[in-house]
Amino acid sequence: MTVLRVDTISGIGSDGPVFDGDLEFNSQNFFVLPKGTTTERFYNFPGVDAASARGVFAGGAVEPSPTRLNTIDYITISTTGNATDFGDLVDLSQYPAGVAGSVRGVIAGGFNGSSFINTINYVTIASTGDANDFGDLTLARNQLTGASNSTRGLFAGGNPETEIVDYITIQSQGNALDFGNLLTSIQNPAGCADSTRALFGGGEDTPTTIDVIQYFNISTTSNSTDFGNLTQSRRLASAGSSKTRGLFAGGRDSSSTQFDTIDFVTIQTLGNATDFGNLSATRSEVATVTSTLRACFGGGYAGPNSTNIIEYVTIASAGNANDFGDLTVIRRSAAGCSNGHGGLG
User: Which fold has domain 55-344?
Assistant: First the structure.
């Protein structure tokens, strides 16, 4: 006869008993089940592995005028080659922001040519198809940026110039909520994250371009804390991360001088950024997608024209960017996100 022994039952609720101790079966086939709660033993899914992680580029604009776009395309980050059509956003959108979990990519805000957008869209990254409505930002704006872990996405700053940071729960549709404030009101910062920290670097506190990097603990609503400084003041840069490093690429200063600079920081430390290497040309308004191994930089503005170039670097090393392929259309000021970035664990 098999006897079940339960050390403790911590509570009985609507979901049934919660077993905190060991379960033992006294029989000829004796065994002890693992210790710990299911939350302790089964962590959030850490994202798609670096070999198959997919990067999504959404929205943007192209000269002349400029023409705003709703284009979504994708790449497999570990390969090289041209991007493939994915579908379309709900709106035409220049300067939106992107965040992602292991399943969903979420694109928020932007400018459609006549008004700022408060719409949040989402796609299922592993599939293809048009975006679906997710909810709304707390403030309609463009030139914001995003950073996320596997659970929460943060949207920071924007035009009209603001210190607002919103957050969403990526797997739950609904409107964004207030998270806290940046150190100052800024537009067009660059954002990236590991599993616990979100970093936002650079931006424009009109008329001044800044070099400040600031951070939040993603799990706790609060105001930002100073992290350090980029190697140079710049706005309209782009950022991405592995599990340990954040990279900030491109951008321009208040006089519209373009940069090819790539900086890096170690996300769990504090301090100033260090030179990593260079893009193949000076440009701003690049969209970045990452796996835990690679960062890919797509599109951008070199003045007076946009580009469809995609380049990549290996995040753990340092060096200049290498050619990857091309986006499906020439454009700048798109949003990037991926299902394998360093914020997913």
Answer: Neuraminidase (2.120.10)
